[in-house]
Structure formats: C-alpha cells, structure tokens
Amino acid sequence: MNIKQLNQLPIKEFLDKIGIAASYQKGESYWYISPIRGREQSPSFKVNTALNRWYDYGLMQGGKLFDLAQRLDPNLDVSRLIEKINGLFFFEQQNPGARIFSLPIQPSVTIESGKPPAVIINEIKPLGNNPAISSYLQNRGIAVDLARRYCKEVYYQIGDKNYFAAGFANRSGGYELRSRYFKGSSSPKDITHIENGGKSICVLEGFMDFLSLLTLQKNTRPVHSDFLVLNSVSLADRSLDILAGYRNVFLYLDQDDAGKRVEESTNWPG
Predict the structure, then answer these.
(1) Structural contact between residues 247 and 199, judged by C-beta atoms closer than 8 angstroms
(2) What is the pTM of this model?
(3) CATH number, domain containing residue 245
(4) Between the N and C ends of the chain, which has fewer C-beta atoms within 10 Å?
(5) Beta-carbon neighbour count of residue 111 at 10 Å?
(6) Cα gap 27→46, rounded to integer Å
(7) For residue 65, what is the domain's CATH number?
C-alpha cells in the first residue's frame, strides 16, 4: 500500500493496535492523553472517526494516519514506516506471533482458574523505543528519562499471545512487569537491591513506588541512599542480611495489613 491508501485505514484502530486507549468518547470523537507529547493531566488529543483525522490541541496540529505514525516513530524513513504499518494491519492477521511494528498489539491478559500463566520473555529493549510503554509511565507521573536508568521494555509471551510492558529486573534475573493491562512478573521472583554507595537504605514494596520516590526526591534533594525493592511483601525475609549492613533503614511500605505485618515480623525501625 502507498501513503494515500494507508491514510484510509482507521486511526482509532491503529491506536488500539499499538496499545493506546481513549480516555473517553464523545459522539464521533475519541479523546486521548497525547501520545506524541509529554505528560498531561487532561486528554487533549482527539480522533474524529467520521473524518478519520487526529488533532492535538496542545500542539495545535493534526493530520492523517501516516502523519501520526511519523510522529510516533520519527527515526524511520518513509519506506520502512509504510512497511511497518502494512504489517500491523495485515501481516499480523496471517501470523499473530509476529511483531513487525515498534508498537505491538497488547490485549488485556486473562488469568483463568486463579492461577497466573507462565511468562516467557522473548526480548528486552532499552526503555524509550515503545511510545505505548513510555505513555503508561508518564501517565503514572514517572519521567521516561528517570525510568530508563532502572527499567527496560520487556516483550513477553503468555501461551500463544504476545505482550509488552515496562520491566524492572530483580537480583535473580526475573522481571516485574507493568503496563496499562497487566501487573505480574516473570520467574524467578526475587528482591531488587540498588546500591549507590550509601550508608542508609530505603525499603519499598514495588518498583512503581521506587520510581515515584525518586521523582519526589529529584524535585527536593539529591539521592544519596541505597534502595531495596521487595517486589512482594512475602519476600521480606530475603532482605534481612542486606539491611543488617546499613546504619539507617527507612521504610516506605503501604500502611495496610500486609505492610504492618512486615514491619512487625522483621522488627525494622519504622
């Protein structure tokens, strides 16, 4: 297909396929958190399905599908971008396992019988290549430049379906996985110890808590402490030997029953 033909493809379906969901619908207009700008609080990116056009009110610019694809993947030349859009709409139907566009399809994950399915990691990439993952982090209030130091883009498989997520590695080589649709992990499950040469250590339950704390500290004071991310309160016992080597231990745990049980069972200072 050429550019003129590609521009006849529905923009909303294109965004659905690359994992960008509308915040709300009003008539023939779908409103999104802008996928081509920085973090914003209110949706200002509109797709009109009747006209098949997009418009970003923050940039005061809009266009057709190919214009949007160029904004999302600006490093590709025209021929390669045409190839990838073609693949997203047509090749994927013939081979659902193929990932030929930089933003693969990510439907929601269904877990049956209360038992999490096995996660198979197929590929690890530096954070910042996939706008859908970057958009997810930005919507959580995390700057991509900050998250890039600690997270990766993880492309993984559950059964015969392929997905992607922001991944945070633990000390045993497993990953905590987070996306708009999925919260889970790959095996093996373990804690994460981040060393900065500090004499104090901050303990947190999850890596989104960790990134949020770094965001707060970045705006208030430099980071001089080490960090320990439990990745699950059930793994708290694995951290005791590590914490014994620090002068000060600061807890940033949820004040729910699980967090309180961790404090009580380990006798850490609150």
Answers:
(1) yes
(2) 0.56
(3) 3.40.1360.10
(4) C
(5) 11
(6) 12
(7) 3.90.580.10
